[in-house]
Amino acid sequence: MGMIWQFISSKIEQNIDVYLITVAETQGSSPGKVGFKMAVAADGSLYGSIGGGVMEFNLVEMARKNLAEGYKQNFLKRQVHSHDAAEDKSGMICSGEQTQIFSLFSKADSEVLAKVIELESENRPGKIVLSTSGAEVYEGESHISIKGIEFQKSDSSFRYSEPLGVKETVYIFGAGHISVPLSQILGLLDFRVELFDNRQGLSTFEGNAWAHKKQIVDYKQVSHLLPGNDRSYVVIITFGHKFDEIVLKQLIGKPLKYIGMIGSKSKVKTIFESLIAEGYGKENVERVCSPIGLPIGGQTPAEIAVSIAAQIVEWRNKR
Q: C or N terminus of the chain, fewer CB within 10 Å?
């Protein structure tokens, strides 16, 4: 999601106004999910998606028309996905409905956007509020609601708030050939990526332009490198089973959302048996996804990366 703020910022710096369309509420079967965003700039360019199809097309046209006519309001637009809808018919037939916020951004919002981008890029907690009167940003964990996204509306006003800088992060141990496409795919899936290896001068470490953070570490001391919370995902794909096991032992007890380790079935079975024999809890051992990834028959680094990323998404969606 971070890139959409960059897009808006680059436009308003050129004095090109932008409507940000945000899905604030959905009911039933709806193509867009709460938090989906799309930016429509006055120069005609677009970024993001709110669910696609004819509904998205119509809302984009509405934003473009408002920008062309100099309409300056922030407002809500409801779309009902049904043939029988009396009003706000979206043109889609999946029988749900969704409400979008139209937020206008112009040069006056430069500072707010700069702060949003800063929090997102540095993974520092805060929130953005979109309301009838415009956009505001707040910094600090105390501003983040337990519920995450919040939305209130009345006949004349609305207020939507969304956490910033608390991105789900994938910590990859092992910067070999799989880590490069994996970092790239995870970025597309809106994860933050941190990459660790214990080897100096590794081309796949140096050349990885998609990881948000890269660090050479001692695999015997990695526990402190990541928080234990439900926004943390771990991928263990080091240069050898010995290191895989060393890393796994330090992280297996942490309350992580996902932990996966590469390895053949027989090698993994041996490691798991020795962990249980050494007193590591059976339930902790059993939640390690290993061999890592969904079984799609992948052989190349990119195919294996797809299978790992798919498994991570599967775990992310297990609410």
A: C
